[in-house]
Amino acid sequence: IGSIQEFNIYDKALNPADVAAKFAAGPVVAPVEPAAPITMFLDFGNSALTEGPDINGNYWNNVVNTDAGSATGNLVDAQNNPTDVNLVLVTGSYQTNSGALANPDPSLLGDLAVGTATGDYHVQLLANYGMAPISFLLTGLDQSKTYVFSFYAGRDTEEERITQYDIQGANAYSGTLQTSGSGIGSVPEYPNGNDSTILVTEPVTPNENGEIQVTFSVVSGSYGYLSAMKVEAL
Question: What would the pLDDT profile of 101-157 be if each residue is shown by its tens digit?
Fold first, then answer.
């Protein structure tokens, strides 16, 4: 009798109907969290380098060379992870300079409010001086993603100065930013410089080579500027 009871218990444990029901339900799979968007920060200018982590915990890339053909390779993302993205200057900058916004307000400029990034810049001269617009290429981008650019620049001077930023990939975007002008600043120590406005683009898709080209040029005034840039992959 004991052997029959043991057989019945074993048979119940391997009941084919129970086994079939479990397989029909499928395996239990843990939900996959979507990958976090990749963000990169770039500081243009060589007067002061932006080292990471900054006050927000972000890491930066420093674009210090002004010569055409120079490259800033293997950019890191905000968490200091290496990427395959490179920045190559297509046309050189006139110069880099300091004397911009040294004490930015995070409530106005968000995560671009880092003094070493906003305090210097690359400069583009008015075309009348024989200076071509400054252009650089981002290579190694993911063609399955779109990219949003945020630009900051400012210079404390009463002359109205407006810079245009043109983005070209598989699609294009153009926008302008007033960097200088009488009374546009919000603090006494920076009364005529932009200290509160960032130009944020529409999403741009890389071209078939995984590239996006950025060009900035003078719209109004004597100079165009670029101090800090954020690139977000969506």
Answer: 999 999 999 999 999 999 988 877 555 556 688 999 999 999 999 999 999 999 999
Helix (H) or strand (E) holding 16: helix 16-25
- β-pair partners for 44: 63
Task: Judge whether 115 and 144 are in contact, CB under 8 Å.
Answer: no
> Using CA atoms, how far apart are residues 215 and 107, in angstroms rounded to an integer?
28
Contacts of 129 (CB under 8 A, 6+ apart): none
Indicate the Cα dihedral angle 213, 218, 220, 225, nearest 10°: 90
Of 158, 61, 54, residue with least CA distance to 114:
54
Element holding 4 (H helix, E strand): helix 2-13
